[in-house]
Specification:
Elements lengths: L6 E2 L6 E6 L4 H9 L5 H12 L4 E6 L19 E4 L11 H14 L4 E5 L1 H9 L3 E4 L5 E10 L1 H5 L9 E8 L1 E5 L5 E5 L7 E6 L2 E6 L7 H10 L1 H6 L6 H12 L6 H11 L1 H4 L1 H7 L4
Parallel strand pairs: 2-3, 2-4, 4-5, 5-12
Antiparallel strand pairs: 1-3, 6-9, 7-8, 7-10, 10-11, 11-12
């Protein structure tokens, strides 16, 4: 079963990072029952793997708990914040949602570098005065294709050494409609106008993406198994055969031939798909 816990690693403090799990307990339990990592575990593992420094993690679950900060810990104790995806929808305004918006507003008052994926983007857009809607173009899932950097994106440190056009792992029904003041649009595609944004609020610097640079091929294959019916219903795949073909690629990403690897390199190559996070970890504020 999924266990509720606060995870504070007592290691050398090069970076004090608050990792915010956006999911309710039921959503995380589904991953655990399938033998998958939860979204916050995926995030923690990739940050640990790619960081050049030690990270002192504190993981919190505001969608699950009211008193989500560990005893003796303050929001002032962090210099970095990462925010996961979620199955929630901002416009439903349930308590699980409003608690997270309130938390984001508090974090924006402090000096932080913030990286927000998918749901995290939607939370910070809302907290900073923007608006999120259900995407009229429908579900974008598994691969966000042909994401293209804007001129601002090409020059932005998030995308240092990134290809100008790329694919990325994704799953979202919603998108930003109105951005906070002074936002930069860094990337977009034909499914979502705001695939990536950056903005400053008070002393915080927010990098936010609508896709998931933290996800990996094997985890995505598990997600596909969990949500096959949804993917077929929304015509993400035209039939079961095409679904199984792509899932097999993600399951056996280390055994691909040259053609398959070249087609999927943006998401198979860990250095490439997690580059935004690597660049964020190096950011000085």
């Amino acid at each position: 079963m999924f266990l509720l816990f606060h995870d504070t690693l007592k290691i050398k403090k090069n970076m004090n990072l608050l990792l915010v799990d956006g999911n309710e307990k039921e959503a995380s339990d589904r991953y655990v029952k399938m033998g998958m990592d939860t979204q916050f575990e995926v995030y923690k593992k990739i940050l640990n793997k790619i960081s050049k420094n030690n990270i002192n993690f504190t993981i919190i679950h505001p969608a699950i708990m009211d008193e989500y900060l560990p005893v003796g810990i303050s929001l002032d104790d962090f210099d970095s914040v990462a925010w996961t995806g979620s199955l929630l929808n901002i416009y439903n305004q349930t308590r699980s949602v409003t608690k997270q918006i309130d938390l984001a507003k508090e974090l924006l008052k402090r000096k932080n570098k913030i990286f927000a994926s998918c749901w995290g983007l939607q939370i910070f857009v809302t907290a900073a005065g923007g608006k999120v809607r259900k995407n009229p173009k429908g579900l974008e899932a598994i691969l966000a294709k042909n994401i293209e950097l804007s001129e601002e994106g090409i020059a932005h440190p998030m995308y240092s050494n990134k290809n100008k056009k790329f694919n990325a792992f994704c799953w979202h029904y919603d998108e930003a409609e109105i951005l906070p003041n002074n936002s930069q649009v860094l990337a977009s595609n034909n499914k979502c106008k705001f695939q990536s944004i950056s903005f400053r609020s008070n002393n915080s610097n927010v990098w936010a993406v609508q896709y998931h640079p933290e996800f990996n091929p094997n985890w995505m294959a598990g997600l596909m198994s969990q949500r096959k019916d949804i993917l077929l219903e929304h015509n993400i795949y035209p039939n079961s055969s095409e679904f199984e073909k792509e899932k097999k690629i993600f399951e056996s990403d280390s055994k691909l031939d040259n053609y398959e690897f070249n087609c999927y390199e943006d998401v198979i190559n860990e250095q490439k798909h997690s580059l935004e996070l690597s660049n964020w970890l190096e950011l000085k504020i």
